[in-house]
């Protein structure tokens, strides 16, 4: 069993296996960018499948429409993670031994002697210990090895921390992968549409769409979002950022915790939340008044720009008018007619824009279809009047709730530092001691040259031998 295990470990940690797995993950990820992600029976994924009938069945069979949740991809990532853990453990064992060897090498009781050495050079007659060490010191310096004197010895040794660059790098990769997986389990992200001046709480009902991992939970933090301003032409740092919202985050008491403009490369961060503003449109604020003149409801209907729509705008979802018993009476759709130029609608807020109010019965019959100026009202089913309070902007916010992101970046930074240590630091020691235990002075040497040493044991022996005009014997 141990033989099988060792062979399995050797296979999983081999360069060929890791290269194949990394190559597959890379190619799979590139292909995934070319295939619409999502349910292949809906939306853009369905349209792609209809446009590519020859390869659509294969793409669906291997799971490329859900590329990063597909079993084949998860198995590949799992094998890479196992390989990385095994490599990390192997490198940890090596680093432990090398670090201990570097510490032990400089201890006086461990200096090489004629009895215990790797290389022994008998100096010519008349050469004393100081002269021999000086010659060796010069020879080593010419090879790029700087030494220091310790009694009758020369010592050149790396820091005991140097061998730890590689294992720390590999363990950092393990931590990175672990937190990426955890992030997928706890992460939640969704879209909130919010009109100018509107406040929406950070609760599931505020989201038009919300995707969450199986471990995601809604914390009762009481946070709310408020759209304070919307600048159609926002300039920051001398660069036109385009349409930019200014967003405030409020606590449970309504106090402002943070306010800032949100645009590409300028997300709003607060706690585990990261907020961006990927899209915008128009909003129509409507007020519903009963037959007694009492306002019974007010809502902002959000509109997206749509070139194929008759008015150039479409509502995200209808507003529902209900009776006293809560039964639906009618569905209201509001749009804003845009100005057309050159055969296309100008995706902008027209000055003093009216709103087109369309009320339909629950079975789809159009009951009202009128263009209503701001401040005016129109009669709608149920004895109500619906007035257009305001026409303005709205911003679509993308909110990501993921507490693992700082840890992912921390592991990446640690991996970069450890990789730098591995790439640029030596792992070696060379100890040369003058031994007076014979008729002539001898230089007993012990050395280990592991990484990033620009010379060899043979070159070191020859260089010191030439400096002393002597020959050395190496112990295997």
Secondary structure topology:
Elements lengths: L1 H11 L2 H18 L10 H9 L4 H7 L8 H35 L13 E4 L6 H14 L5 E2 L3 E5 L7 H22 L1 E8 L3 E3 L7 E4 L11 E13 L2 E12 L5 E6 L6 E3 L2 E17 L5 E11 L7 E3 L3 E4 L5 E8 L4 E2 L2 E2 L9 E7 L4 E7 L4 E4 L3 E18 L3 H20 L2 E9 L6 E10 L5 H12 L3 E3 L2
Antiparallel strand pairs: 1-23, 1-24, 2-3, 3-22, 4-6, 4-21, 5-7, 7-8, 8-9, 10-11, 11-12, 11-21, 12-13, 14-15, 15-18, 16-17, 18-19, 20-21, 22-23
Helix pairs in contact: 2-5, 5-7, 6-9, 7-8
What can you see in these coordinates?
By secondary structure, the chain is α+β, with helices and mostly antiparallel strands. The protein has helices at residues 2-12, 15-32, 43-51, 56-62, 71-105, 129-142, 165-186, 405-424, 457-468; strands spanning 119-122, 148-149, 153-157, 188-195, 199-201, 209-212, 224-236, 239-250, 256-261, 268-270, 273-289, 295-305, 313-315, 319-322, 328-335, 340-341, 344-345, 355-361, 366-372, 377-380, 384-401, 427-435, 442-451, 472-474. The protein has three domains: 2-92, no CATH class; 106-158 and 426-474, TATA-Binding Protein; 188-401, no CATH class. The protein contains nine helices and 24 strands. Strands 4, 6, 10, 11, 12, 13, 20 and 21 form an eight-stranded antiparallel β-sheet that branches. A six-stranded antiparallel β-sheet has the order 2-3-22-23-1-24, with helices on both faces. A four-stranded antiparallel β-sheet has the order 5-7-8-9, with no helix packed on it. The longest helix has 35 residues, at 71-105. It is elongated and about 120 Å long. The mean pLDDT is 90.
């Amino acid at each position: 069993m141990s033989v099988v295990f060792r062979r399995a470990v050797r296979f999983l940690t081999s360069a060929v296996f890791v290269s194949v797995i990394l190559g597959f993950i890379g190619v799979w990820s590139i292909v995934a960018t070319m295939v619409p992600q999502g349910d292949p029976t809906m939306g853009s994924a369905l349209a792609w499948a209809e446009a590519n009938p020859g390869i659509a069945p294969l793409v669906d069979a291997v799971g490329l429409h859900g590329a990063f949740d597909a079993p084949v991809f998860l198995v590949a990532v799992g094998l890479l993670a196992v390989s990385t853990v095994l490599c990390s453990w192997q490198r940890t064992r090596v680093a432990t031994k090398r670090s201990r060897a570097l510490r032990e090498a400089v201890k006086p009781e461990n200096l090489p002697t004629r009895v215990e050495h790797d290389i022994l050079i008998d100096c010519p007659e008349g050469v004393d210990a100081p002269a021999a060490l000086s010659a060796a010191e010069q020879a080593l310096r010419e090879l790029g090895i700087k030494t220091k004197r310790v009694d009758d010895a020369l010592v050149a040794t790396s820091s005991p921390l140097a061998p730890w660059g590689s294992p720390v790098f590999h363990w950092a990769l393990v931590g990175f992968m672990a937190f990426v997986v955890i992030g997928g389990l706890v992460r939640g992200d969704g879209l909130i549409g919010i009109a100018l001046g509107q406040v929406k709480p950070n609760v599931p009902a505020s989201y038009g769409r919300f995707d969450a991992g199986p471990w995601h939970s809604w914390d009762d933090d009481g946070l709310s979002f408020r759209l304070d301003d919307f600048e159609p032409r926002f300039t920051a740092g001398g660069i036109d950022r385009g349409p930019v919202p200014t967003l405030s985050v409020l606590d449970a008491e309504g106090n402002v915790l943070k306010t800032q403009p949100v645009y590409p490369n300028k997300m709003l961060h607060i706690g585990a939340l990261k907020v961006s503003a990927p899209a915008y449109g128009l909003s129509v604020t409507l007020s519903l008044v009963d037959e007694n003149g009492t306002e019974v409801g007010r809502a902002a209907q959000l509109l997206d720009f749509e070139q194929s729509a008759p008015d150039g705008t479409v509502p995200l979802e209808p507003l529902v008018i209900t009776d006293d018993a809560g039964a639906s009476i009618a569905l209201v759709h509001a749009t804003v007619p845009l100005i057309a130029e050159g055969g296309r609608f100008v995706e902008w807020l027209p000055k003093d824009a009216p709103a087109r109010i369309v009320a339909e019965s629950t079975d789809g019959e159009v009951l009202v279809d009128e263009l209503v100026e701001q401040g005016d009202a129109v009669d709608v089913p149920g004895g109500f009047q619906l007035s257009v309070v305001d026409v303005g902007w709205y911003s679509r916010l993308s909110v990501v709730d993921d507490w693992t992101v700082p840890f992912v970046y921390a592991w990446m930074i640690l991996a970069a530092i450890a990789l730098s240590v591995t790439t640029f630091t030596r792992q070696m020691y060379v100890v040369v001691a003058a031994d007076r235990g014979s008729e002539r002075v001898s230089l007993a040497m012990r050395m280990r040259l592991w990484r990033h040493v620009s010379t060899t044991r043979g070159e070191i022996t020859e260089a010191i031998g030439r400096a002393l005009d002597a020959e050395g014997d190496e112990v295997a």
